[in-house]
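Technical appendix A lists one of the benchmark inputs used to test multi-chain prediction within the project. The record comprises three sequence entries:
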Amino acid sequence: MGKPQKVKDIFMKTITYLGSGFSLLFLTITMIFIFSNGFGLISFGLFTGDYHAKYYAGRPASVECEGCEVTDELKGYYSSVYGIALYDDFDRAGNVVIKVSYVHENSPLLNMLDTNNPNQSISLKVDDVVTRVAFFDQPSALTRNGASMMIQSMDQSTEIRELTFSTLGGGIRGSLITTLYLIGMSLALALPIGILTAIYFSEFAPVNRLTNLLRSFIETLTGVPSIIYGLLGITLFIPITVRLNLSQGANLFAGAMTMAVILLPVVIRTTEETLKSIPNSYRHASLALGANYTQTVKKVVLPNALPGIMTATFLAVGRIIGESAALIFVLGTAVKDTVRVNESSTTLAVHIWTVMTDEPSNIELASSIAFIILIIVLILNIGVKYMSYLINKKLRGVV
Amino acid sequence: MLDVWKKTQRNNERPRMLGRNDKILYKLLLLITIISASFVILIAVFITLRGILPFITDNSGLGSVDLWNFFTDTVWLRGQTFVSTAYGAGFLILNTLYIVFLSLLISFPISVFTAVFIAKIAPEKLAYLMRTAVEMMASIPSIVYGLVGAGVVLPIIYNTARSLGTHSSGGNSTLAVVIVLAFMSIPTITAVSEVSIRNVDENLEKASLALGASNIQTQFKVVLIAAKSGIFAGVILAVGRALGEATAVSLVAGNSRSGPNFGLFDITSTITSTMLQGLKETQGIDYDIRFSLGVLLMVVIVITNVLLNLVKRKVGKLHG
Amino acid sequence: MKKIIVLLVLIAIGFVTLGCGNDGFDSSQRPSVYTRDTTSGTRDGFMKGIGFGDAAANDSLLVDGFATRDNNAIMQAMTIDEYGIGYISLASLNDTVKGVNFNGVEPTVENVINDTYDLKRPFMYMLRANDDWESQEIKEIAHAFIAFLHSIDGGDIINDQGAVALPSNYTWESVRDTHPICQGDNSALTLRFGGSDSIQRIAEALSAEFSPRCGNVVTENDHTGSGDAFRRTQGDQKDQVVGKHIGYASRPFRGDELNTPDDTRGQLAWDAIVVIIHKDNPVDSLTAEQIKRIYSGEYETWEDVIE
């Protein structure tokens, strides 16, 4: 081996290291970006909270707060007249807000007259956002003046005319529920059809043109871009659900049907591969014992294909969680807090799309949702690996 | 093929020993399989039918869209929305192909080198790590790639453009789309290439080594050449996906309304990004034209696929 | 993270200014120009207000070496950078910086409302024509909304978002009884807003607070540009899917838009912009032309401006 060759070899070797270095770098950047931007908003409230804030306006019935001289250290600024503490913070869209950190049990703000529904009473809670305090005798205290000014104004004034406040908003509960619905409904459609098709191909299909044709049709589905499935949903599935009186427009049924078609090739291929890997000795044994084909399939083939079906399920769930383009068309982009199967709503991935295309876009909330999606995908990946380990172990045990 | 049924299958008939129950099951399964397979036809028929409507109806009095104009014009819509029907998607075709080609220039070398590294060069543990990393990349949803593009790539491009003294609108540009698509193509090409590299006949490798070639020389001059057909298959797969990618692209494209946009720092738009543009508040012809774009997208994908497969066959024949 | 970057930048600027010595204002220095980014509505209003509309969305027309900052960062920079010049919305102005008189008029809320201060633009609204509503209910709700946005309570929301609301002398509570529609349940009705995107934040804040005050009417804000305020309420798109009940415009109505009944349009606020400089800067007043020359780089030093 000549010297120039050696130099060349080292050069080429370095290049392969560089190439994979690049790939690894891309992945690392993605992970770091999502985790660093998204982690800040992850909290219990994010999962359980509404996306749309609810607004209230009330007037305290009294200005008395007995025993409200709190000495403990509280977050932000404290009004001993009204027994509440406020602090400056940001909401989930990054806007400056004033939040409630403490409400004394005797605070008059716990019993306010709802100025929008005069016969009801409303109360201010910890973590609510105070948007404004209006008075009779002085200018209103606004969010832009800060929590310290707001508390000062409240303490100076004789009476509050109106206190407007809202819940925090920006939560993803609705999208989470839609995602779960969609997973359940799409799997309920795709798994039976996919598994039965896989059984046909692996156990029954004769070798002929028709089989090849059917197989190539299903293979072609893999190459269809998801945005095209979205169009299919609009022209075929939404009209079907409307015709069946299930809905008037975009809805979860149509979303699940569209998703099911997208999932079919994955489910079929994964299941069929597992079915084929089941040794024929199993089938022979069953047939030799007098079972017919149906019984063999039901009692022997299917149970042994279970890890493969689990793999298909995991892959399918991953695909549902990540799908955006098709669902934008079939399921809409408006985030809902109350999810109904016959109306439009958003999955987590479409929620990212919605907050990214809003003006201004909310990268932080989008990253938090992406963070959640990546964690789920990671767990699914581990699940797939474990299943393939199970399949391998089983087969090794037999052969 | 299962040998239980081998005989009957070869004779091109249904399994002979089927009982009554079995026959019902067989028919049921065949029916379901036909349903599964019919979706691709449903897609083609339904979308094409809806997609040609703007060209053959008068679009509630606005006049029909000119087909020739649609394929060749360089402005998406001449005149006012909901009034004019002078839609043109010619520049979108060019933009889309141009972007996918550029993204391939980045992703192809990186992917092939990564694949060689994983399959042949890396120590076992490192190869395992890289393989897991590539699998992870493959399972990241496209919307997340779009988000990373908007959060990381756009600011970098914006600042680069500024330091180069050119203008970019917030980083939304051809370059941004190219980079995001390259990110997304890497796992596809790498995974397929790695498999085909590992499947190369070991004897070929041994022969080369025996002839005195170095290991690296063998990998690049013998194994890679032998695996080229498989690598090309990976490229075809990646190109198909890149052509059809929608959400990630439209988050970083800037969505130009006329073109073609060849400048790296200029805003751009693709067939898919235009389909998603202004979706919330549209109707009538402006909505229906999206189906025409869908048909156009399918045609572009099929033609590209056929051409690439022809090239692949040619390339496969060279070098025996 | 952002805060840290801002802090570092400020420290850096601080060192530079300290290094220059602190012995008075050196008018042979270059003005350091600060601007909002091209997506900002304030920038759009500012550039158009000084007669430099081409630069509203095009950074390359600005003087070399300008800095792009957000509202707060421009304020903070002006407390440190003696030779800086920037612009903010009037509501953010405080006494840590100097607000420059524009064409000789002092930037105050009074001068904005009495229409003498010129670096501003009006925020307008337009309703559907009186006989062109899909139902009497939605028409009454829309009129209740207009009453709300002219009330003190509506004005607070507008002021909180940085614009200058028109003066008002009544609260929503005092006029609610004249809008009985708001006492029922309106959650099945949708009020659709559109028009200017620079009013979007104000409009969304108004919608959000109005809904619970009027029987939880559903509100939909879809902002596409000032031109659509007329087009989608009384113009050629009013009966399409994109048609709106109320449209906003961030400029005076003009041309065809004025051929609409007077009682279907009005103003809700002013958006006033103030040019700010460091307190040590001797300049007190600038004309539109002078500001344009600073931003385009025609004036190379503060001396050129003062002369």
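The longest helix of chain A spans residues 3-38. Chain A has a mean pLDDT of 89. Comparable benchmark entries are summarised in Table A2.
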